[in-house]
Structures are given as structure tokens and as C-alpha cells.
Write a structure and sequence with these properties.
single chain, 270 residues, mainly alpha, three-stranded antiparallel β-sheet, 13 helices, 3 strands, 66% helix, disordered C terminus
């Protein structure tokens, strides 16, 4: 794991008399930008909950050390990613995880009924499955991909108009089944949850943003390393300060793995 920033300078020649210098800022952390910040925030939240124990071992962590660092993380979320805080991402993730099993079950029940009820009209069957998102998203939804689930629920709600709903109900599917799927979509809408909320990617990330993310990560990872030595006899406590472990749990819950962000470029001069 790296602990210093890497800067690569690329000379971009425009003409023989003029050139640009492109500064490429490398991320020193694993995972997406939102994933890294959320992981750091989770670690600092744990630190705040256990600050008396930590301060007893290291006086430099006394108030307002951890709260100031958490504010820095929250500011980075808002300024650079357009998300109010890590709490928003955790709330979105918790909502999806909470509904995932039930909604997959209900979607599966709906899908099989549409397939069987319209099997004598294959063209119409395929059209309905496409309209409601089954064709494009359901396989990924079954793999517990959260982004696909969000996309599918919003597609389902947008396209299940009165006539289509009545057509499906007339074939035998209970109206309550369809309404329950719409209710899941409404829950997401109420919290303004989108696939971009989970990614934390509503804004273009600049080299300045990556510089700030790197600085936050570097500070948090130093805390993790110190904790691992000061509390070497408490394995369970140390695990709460493991960046890689927490990132993996977060990534698994979101179903998108440790996706790396693209490199951020910033023109340094002309």
C-alpha cells in the first residue's frame, strides 16, 4: 500500500513554439473516490466512538482531532463529489441492502407470471419484459448488483402505466404484486437515491480533488497503522481500523468490487 502521492508530468506538444504540461495525479488509495472517503469516514466514526481509549494511548488524538478530520471528509464529499456526506451513501446502501432480498423475490414472481401469461404472444411478452427492465437489468439484479436494481426499479415505475398495468393484471398477476414493486421505487425516490449516489460521482473529479482525497487517506491510514501497533493484542479492535477490510465490505455490499477511478488530469501551464 502506497503512502505518498505520485505525479507524472506529460509534455503535450501543440506546435513547435508552444507546449502544455499535463500534470497527472495518481490516487494512492484502492477503490473508488466515494468508496475511499466512505471507508475513511467509517474508520473515523469508530475512532470517535472509542476516543477515550485511543487518547489514553496517544494524547495527540485528543479533541477535536477526530471530529476535525471527519469534517474534512464531509467537506470533500460535498465540494468534490456533490454528496452531502458519507452518511448519505451509507443510508442509500442500507436502504438497498434492506429491500434487496424482498424486491428480487417480488420481481422474480412478476417475471415468471408475465412469461407464462404471455407465452402465446411472444412479441408482446418480450416487449413487456423490455419495457419493465427485466431484459436489461434482471440478471444483474439477481447477482445483487445495486446499481442495476436502482435502474430497474426506476424503469419499472416509469413504464408501468395504467394500461400496461391493467393488461398484466387482466392476465392473472395480482395488482398488489405490481404495487409492491412501485413502493420500492418510491422509497428510493423519497431519499433521492440514484446509481450516481452510490458511486458518489455526480461531479467531475479534478486533480485538486484527488490531491485532497490522497491527503485524507494518508492521514487516516496513519491512524490505522498506529492503532495496529498500540492495540496489537486486540485483533477485533484492530479490524475496525483496517482500510482494506472495510473497503471490501463496502464494495461487496454495493456489488461493484474495488472499482478504480480514472486518472485525474490538470493542465499545469502553457
Amino acid at each position: 500500500m502506497l503512502n505518498t502521492e505520485k505525479i507524472v508530468i506529460t509534455f503535450v506538444f501543440i506546435n513547435p513554439l508552444k507546449f502544455n504540461i499535463m500534470v497527472t495525479m495518481k490516487r494512492i488509495y484502492k477503490g473508488s473516490d466515494a468508496g475511499a472517503l466512505t471507508t475513511c469516514d467509517t474508520i473515523i466514526t469508530t475512532a470517535i466512538s472509542n476516543k477515550e481509549r485511543l487518547i489514553a494511548k496517544r494524547s495527540g488524538w485528543k479533541d477535536p482531532f477526530f471530529t476535525d478530520l471527519q469534517k474534512k471528509i464531509a467537506d470533500a464529499f460535498k465540494v468534490y463529489l456533490g454528496v452531502d456526506s458519507a452518511k448519505d451513501l451509507r443510508a442509500a446502501t442500507a436502504l438497498i441492502i434492506g429491500m434487496q432480498t424482498d424486491v428480487i423475490k417480488t420481481l422474480s414472481q412478476t417475471k415468471v407470471q408475465v412469461e407464462e401469461d404471455f407465452k402465446n404472444n411472444k412479441a408482446r411478452r418480450e416487449e413487456i419484459l423490455k419495457q419493465l427492465g427485466f431484459t436489461d437489468f434482471f440478471k444483474k439484479v439477481q447477482s445483487r448488483n445495486q446499481e442495476a436494481l436502482i435502474e430497474m426499479l426506476f424503469r419499472f415505475k416509469a413504464n408501468l402505466l395504467t394500461d400496461l398495468k391493467q393488461e398484466i393484471v387482466n392476465k392473472g398477476t395480482a395488482a398488489a404484486t405490481l404495487e409492491s414493486i412501485l413502493a420500492y421505487a418510491d422509497q428510493l425516490e423519497a431519499l433521492n437515491v440514484s446509481q450516481e449516489t452510490l458511486k458518489g460521482g455526480r461531479k467531475d473529479v479534478t486533480a485538486a480533488a484527488v490531491t485532497e482525497f490522497n491527503a485524507i487517506y494518508s492521514e487516516v491510514i496513519s491512524i490505522c497503522r498506529i492503532v495496529s501497533r498500540l492495540f496489537a493484542d486486540d485483533k477485533l479492535f484492530i479490524e475496525k481500523f483496517s482500510y482494506s477490510r472495510i473497503l471490501k465490505q463496502l464494495s461487496a455490499s454495493q456489488g461493484n468490487g474495488n472499482k478504480e477511478e480514472p486518472t485525474a488530469n490538470l493542465p499545469a501551464s502553457e
